[in-house]
C-alpha cells in the first residue's frame, strides 16, 4: 500500500471517530483545500490518487484546469478533479481515465 493510501485510510478512520460538529468543521476545511489553484503547481509533478506520477503540469487553462503531456498527447485535467495532498497536486482521475476522455 502506498504512503498516500495509508494516510487517506488513516484520515478516513479518524474522521469517522470524530463527533459530528468536529466532522462538519473538517469537511469545510477539506472543501476549501480542494479548490486548489493549478497555477501554483505549474512545472510540478501531477499525481494520481493512488500516488502514481502522471506528468509535470505543462500549462494552466483559464478555468484552472491543468494541462499535461501524457504519452505524447496534450491532456486536460479538469480543475474539479484536482486537490492538494502533502504539498503535491493530485487528481482523482486515473491515467486511463485521462487518456480515454475526449
Can you put this structure into words, describing what you see?
This protein has 102 residues and is of the alpha+beta class. The chain has three helices and six strands, in the order H-H-E-E-E-E-E-E-H. It has a six-stranded mixed beta sheet with strand order 4-3-2-1-6-5. The termini are far apart.
Short note summarizing the structure:
The chain has 102 residues and is α+β, with helices and mostly antiparallel strands.
Proportion of β residues?
Answer: 25-35%
Structural class: alpha+beta
Cα radius of gyration in angstroms: 15 Å
Terminal residue distance: 31 Å
Number of helices: 3
Q: Any idea what the shape is?
A: globular
Got a strand count?
6
Overall pLDDT confidence: 79
- Report the uncertain regions: 18-34
- Name the helicity range: 25-40%
- Spell out the helices and strands N to C: HHEEEEEEH
- Strand order, sheet with most strands: 4-3-2-1-6-5
- Main beta-sheet strand count, sense and barrel state: 6 strands, mixed
Amino acid at each position: 500500500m502506498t504512503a498516500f493510501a495509508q494516510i487517506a485510510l488513516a484520515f478516513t478512520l479518524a474522521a469517522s471517530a470524530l463527533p459530528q460538529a468536529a466532522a462538519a468543521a473538517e469537511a469545510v476545511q477539506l472543501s476549501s483545500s480542494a479548490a486548489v489553484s493549478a497555477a501554483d503547481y505549474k512545472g510540478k509533478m501531477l499525481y494520481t490518487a493512488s500516488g502514481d506520477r502522471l506528468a509535470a503540469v505543462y500549462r494552466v487553462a483559464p478555468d484552472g484546469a491543468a494541462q499535461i503531456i501524457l504519452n505524447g498527447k496534450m491532456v486536460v485535467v479538469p480543475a474539479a478533479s484536482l486537490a492538494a495532498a502533502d504539498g503535491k497536486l493530485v487528481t482523482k482521475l486515473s491515467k486511463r481515465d485521462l487518456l480515454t476522455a475526449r
